[in-house]
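Quick one: structure for this chain?
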Amino acid sequence: MAALAACDAAGAGPSGAPVAGAPAPAMQAPAFPRPVATLPLRPGYYVASDTPCRRASNATVSLLRRGGIGGARDFCEFQKIEQAAPGTYRVTQACKDFQDSGPAQSSVVTYTLSGTERFTARHAHGWVHSARRCAASTMPPPWRDNDIREEPPG
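Got it. Here's what it folds into:
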């Protein structure tokens, strides 16, 4: 009898089937924000969404690595990544301009992903950048033959 009472309290009969009129079991929604190790984007070249891959230039190309993203003039190291909602990630990053001897500048950018090969980045200061992944083989010659594999941990 105790087992039957326990089943009824859980909203199920002795067979495990739902009992008519019993409250549905509560489904736990994922807790946000939650820390994650990396952005769930494929590493590689990302080109501004309004530029064909074959027409990419220093002004439109970024290289996404596991630990950050950079272009011709700077690199932003991801310091903290939190999933804020499904498909949305808040990234604290430290960006260093290659031409500047000063310290890296920290900022927060919100990445909204469309699958694993497209994103829109919104900076806390207002700028917005959308890009999608381009295979190296579809890029102009300066990028086509570069070895962009991740360096081994050392």
